[in-house]
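Fold this complex.
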Amino acid sequence: MKSGWWKALGVLLLLYVVIVGLRTPLAPALVHLSEDKLPPGRNEVVVAGYNTRFTADAPQAWLQNDAQFVCATAATAERDDRLRVVFDVPDGLRRDLSHLVVRSNGRTLVFHDAFWNPAKGAGIANAGCAPPVEDTAGPFEFPDRSVLYETIRNLFFHVPMWFTMMWLMTLSLLHSIRTLRNNDLEHDRAAVSAVSTGLLFAFLGLITGSLWARNTWGTWWTSDPQLNGAAAVTLIYLAYLVLRGSVNEFDKRSRLAAIYNIFAYALMIVFFLVLPRLTDSLHPGKGGNPAFSQYDLDHHLRTVFYPAVAGWVLVGTWLYTLRRRARRIEAWLDEEPSA
Amino acid sequence: MRNHLHKLATTAVAALLAVRTFASSAAPDWLEETFYRSGKINTVIAVVTVVLLGLAFWMFRSDRRLARLEKRMNERHKA
Amino acid sequence: MRPAEILHLLRLELRLDLHQRHAVGGSLLYVVSAVFVAYQAMQGRAEGTAWNALFWIILLFAAFNTLARSFQREDAGQHLYLYTLADPRNVILARVIYGAGTMLVLSLLSFGTYVLFLGHAPLNDANVGQYLLAVVAGGTGFAAVLTLVSAIASRAGNGVGLMAVLGFPIVLPLLLSAIKAGRLALIGMPWTVTGKYLLWLGLVDVIAVTLAWVLFPYLWRDR
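Structure:
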């Protein structure tokens, strides 16, 4: 058991990730508005909130337009997640788009670029009703991002799949290099075990990613460099297995597979790390998208995300060693026909 | 004939547009917003399920592999 | 690495090709008929993106067709001959260079026939220099990657089928960036934009050639 501590650690980490990652509530947010256009005059807007408690106190609401404010003449909480707001919109706001700000229970909730104001002008007299209030540090909760909502938790179950795959493929690369160096079949077995375990994680990554994409971006598959890269990597390693399957002499097989593996890995790295940075991607942090590391991956998410990566990598390594040990016994049984 | 086709095409386009506008207005009453209320949590459940099923699949295959090895070992033991 | 030996090997390749003229003719015919099929399929009308993608796909298949020969055609006697006389590193370098040269000829030829058949409308506001550079860089990359893959496939003793399985995914990054560079060149983007992709293509070429150079001796070691 002494040498198995890391396996237990992996499981414990994942246990922590499942519990904290699924139980932590999302921060309250404004998710839907009944109007998207506010012409001058009286306008009534119904605001849908998520995890909000509008009825718990008297919420204040205002429009923010280029440091100018328009206060709501009325804000009535109909339910905890529904607020009816009335604005008397003046003529001549400076910007086309205004933010909607709601202050409720000591939290400031912002819906960015919420409304389009058709009558733009030189500016209005400032009402001065809405002092920009700094939020006090909130409780432990995950941010509520538009489109993502609760699926932000998939961060702990989708993204680490790719990390684990990369880690296993890197292990396989190292073993392939050693196979070429000293022709040791043990390293060859390690390399193929790492690849097949890595492929498990690649498939999990593809399926979970596809599910997630369907429910946020609206399609099962988009022509996204990250996605295409993932598919290409999966194909490359499937080809690796096909190559192994088509050669029978294990000495030659180990060498050919190692060469292909090294070649494939170099081009895969290129594909995965560089290409997405050259083109726009729907994935965060690439192209024009805001990075998870900038504000999406806030420190609350981090405290679960890093353990999730570590946990999945450890469990993946565990699966790989199991496969490798089985292969070793298999090779031993093959070698000695009548021991 | 040509005129006829033209008419047909316009009707088809109009019908399509009607369907589209109808679809957007008939989208489940946002006030009910079951979608937002559940906050897409079902996606998370689906993802976690997929991951668990993947691991189970892996265990299953390893199990079969080991069973095969055990069988070979036993045969050799008898021989 | 001895340039004299590489030159000698290149001459050997050329002599082999001149011996097997039907194979060379086959490649040329392949390109022309592929372009003709594309022309028929597109009914002569192709706008920029499709024009570009189709061209690269024709080029890719031409590369597979041609480069598959580079190792499959050598028989045991030739292998032994080269094995005893030449340094494997020179062999692979010579073959990659020869492959790149063949690809250059083939791609320029296909470009010519392609423009002839499918028209030059998409080229009207294109930067042709950039486009040709992308064609050259992409062809060289195909040559470098597919020569090594061809060597692996022929060693595995499972000719063209295995080559396609091994080659397609591995050539994908190259193909995608080449298509992208080509598309940017077609729109007539300035060098600062397309240059990034061309540089990138060149980098992939360098990586592929270096890896082929490093790995080939291990492949060469025995039959």
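Residues 149 and 166 of chain C are 7 Å apart (CA to CA).
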